[in-house]
Specification:
This protein has about 180 residues and is mostly helical. The protein folds into two domains: about 60 residues, no CATH class; about 110 residues, Rossmann fold, CATH 3.40.50. The strands form two sheets. The protein has a three-stranded parallel β-sheet with strand order 3-4-5, with helices on one face. Strand 4, helix 10 and strand 5 form a beta-alpha-beta unit. The longest helix is centred in the C-terminal third of the chain and has 16 residues. It is globular, with a radius of gyration of 18 Å. The N and C termini lie far apart (about 40 Å).
Length: about 180
C-alpha cells in the first residue's frame, strides 16, 4: 500500500506488469505512457518505467490490427459523433483512431466541428475552474451535435461523465458501440 505518493503507486503497478498493458481509457493510457518520463531519474525504476511506457497500447491500436469484419455489431443506431479527447489527440497522438475504427466497422459518422478543442473535463479542471469548464463543455456539445447524432462516442471516461449530464443524446465510451450484445 502507498501513502498516496503517485510515484510509489507507479512503482507498485510496474512491479506487477509482466507482458503488456492495453488501456481502454485514454486518460489512464496517457498516464501509463508517461511513466518513462515521470521516473526517468529514479535509478531503481527508470528501466521498468520505460518498459511500461513501451508496452502500453490504447485498445484502439490493438483493434486496428484485428479483422473486425466478423463482429455482429449493430451499426444501425444512427449517426455517431466522435469526441476525440485531448488525451487521445495530444498525449497519445491518436487523433484519428476512433473515427477510423468506427468508420471501418460500418458506423455512420456525424459531421462535427472544432474537433481539436477540449470538452472542459480535464481531470480536476471541471471542479477547480467550473465556469470555464462549463463553457468549454457547452461549446463542445454544440460542435458535436450540429449534425443531429444519435449518440456521442468518446475515449475518455472523464469526458464522458462531464458531457453526458448536459448532452441531449447519450454519451458512451466508443468501445461500447462494438459490443455485439446490443
Amino acid at each position: 500500500m502507498t501513502d498516496g505518493n503517485p510515484a510509489d503507486l507507479c512503482r507498485q503497478i510496474m512491479a506487477a506488469i509482466t507482458e503488456a498493458i492495453v488501456s481502454s481509457a485514454s486518460g489512464c493510457g496517457s498516464m501509463l505512457v508517461a511513466y518513462g518520463e515521470l521516473l526517468a531519474h529514479d535509478p531503481a525504476y527508470a528501466h521498468r518505467a520505460e518498459r511500461v511506457s513501451a508496452l502500453t497500447r490504447d485498445i484502439g491500436e490493438v483493434l486496428l490490427q484485428e479483422n473486425l469484419d466478423e463482429l455482429a455489431i449493430n451499426t444501425a443506431i444512427g449517426k455517431v459523433a466522435v469526441h476525440t479527447p485531448c488525451t487521445l489527440q495530444h498525449a497519445l497522438g491518436l487523433a484519428d483512431l476512433v473515427p477510423e475504427l468506427l468508420g471501418r466497422t460500418g458506423f455512420e459518422l456525424a459531421q462535427t466541428t472544432d474537433n481539436h478543442l477540449c470538452c472542459g473535463a480535464a481531470g480536476t479542471y471541471s471542479i477547480l475552474q467550473a465556469s470555464t469548464s462549463e463553457r468549454l463543455r457547452d461549446n463542445k456539445l454544440r460542435a458535436l451535435t450540429g449534425d443531429a447524432p444519435a449518440v456521442i462516442a468518446t475515449a475518455n471516461v472523464g469526458c464522458q461523465l462531464h458531457m453526458q449530464v448536459y448532452a441531449n443524446v447519450p454519451v458512451v465510451h466508443w468501445i461500447e458501440l462494438l459490443d455485439t450484445n446490443n
